[in-house]
Design brief:
The structure is a single chain. This protein is of the alpha/beta class. The chain folds into 2 domains: 12-95; 104-270, Vaccinia Virus protein VP39 (Rossmann fold), CATH 3.40.50.150. It is 40% helix and 18% strand. The chain has 12 helices and 7 strands. Strands 3-2-1-4-5-7-6 form a 7-stranded mixed β-sheet. α10 (152-164) links the parallel β2 and β3. Bound molecules: S-adenosylmethionine (SAM). S-adenosylmethionine is lined by residues 106, 127-130, 133-134, 149-151, 154, 176-177, 193-195, 198.
Length: 271
């Protein structure tokens, strides 16, 4: 829970605003018992989850059938609040992306990114663009920039913002870091912030695929300021790194790590 927005106005019905990719994340990462119990309590939401598509629908149906025990009202309410609070960022993406855009930690010093490479006249792909922290800092400098963003509501937000800023070199695509919608060696640079890490190997391989030889991959931020498995993976694969500060006071601010690497023939870990 980040406390970026008052979520008390929402109950479990809010998930009917979620897009299939978010429902997949909810199924895979959130408490399945809570979901199953709440489906039994909210028949309309249950109907939506079971019909959103065949594959996901049958998974949610299984949760509803598995977790159909009787539970007292106050325990169910606590589970519901905890589930909603744990999905705060996803709820903001589909209700009010401006809330995310205005958070203090997005106001890091532009030079932290711009000093990492010469972006002039480059073709850049920004992955997991969100509300455009990296995208809109780079767009005035680069030749062309492509935003890859899996959530439709955020793609609309990015498009509206690019239009309002009269940016004609910004193009917005649906995709994932593990499934980037461009051919091999398509761009000079891949940039991404606050996304890398769920599937490190597959994500790095896919970014390496779309970037030209001697092009760059920049993850800013790519990690919290911590020597964890993600940091070790990036360093072992040839990334340079440095610390930078995301300003407070909103929850999530603090010291972060940025990573950058020029594309070589092979991943270091494959040698
Ligand atoms: C925390 S936001 C970061 C947005 C922006 N890059 C920034 O630094 O402010 C994460 C964004 O990445 C998107 N996202 C999450 N998982 C992703 C994935 N596997 N591939 C691409 N984008 C992803 C989310 O939809 C969301 O817009």
């Amino acid at each position: 829970m980040f406390s970026w927005k008052d979520l008390s106005q929402y109950d479990f019905r809010i998930v009917t605003l979620f897009e299939p990719i978010q429902l997949q994340w909810m199924y895979e990462w959130k408490d399945q018992r809570s979901i199953g119990l709440l489906m039994n309590h909210y028949p309309t939401v249950s109907w939506y989850l079971k019909h959103v598509n065949t594959d996901l629908g049958s998974k949610f149906q299984h949760l509803e059938q598995t977790y159909n025990e009787i539970i007292d009202k106050s325990s169910l309410h606590s589970l519901e609040r905890a589930l909603i609070d744990s999905m705060e960022d996803w709820i903001i993406y589909v209700t009010d992306p401006d809330v995310y855009d205005q958070l203090s930690f997005n106001r890091w010093d532009d030079q932290e990114l711009l000093s990492l490479a010469d972006f002039k006249a480059k073709t850049v792909v920004d992955i997991g663009s969100g509300t455009g922290s990296q995208l809109f800092r780079l767009a005035p400098i680069v030749e062309t920039i492509y935003a890859v963003e899996p959530i439709r509501h955020l793609r609309h937000y990015l498009k509206a913002k690019a239009t309002s800023l009269n940016l004609t070199n910004v193009f917005i695509q649906e995709g994932l870091m593990t499934d980037i919608p461009f051919p091999n060696e398509f761009c000079d640079m891949v940039v991404s912030g606050h996304v890398f890490g769920d599937e490190p190997k597959a994500e790095l391989a896919e970014m390496m695929r779309v970037v030209k030889k001697d092009g760059m991959i920049i993850l800013m931020p790519g990690n919290n300021d911590i020597d964890n498995a993600r940091h070790q993976f990036l360093v072992e694969n040839g990334f340079n790194w440095a610390r930078f500060f995301e300003p407070g006071p909103d929850e999530g601010y603090g010291w972060k790590r940025k990573y950058w690497m020029a594309k070589k023939e092979k991943l270091m870990s494959e040698k």
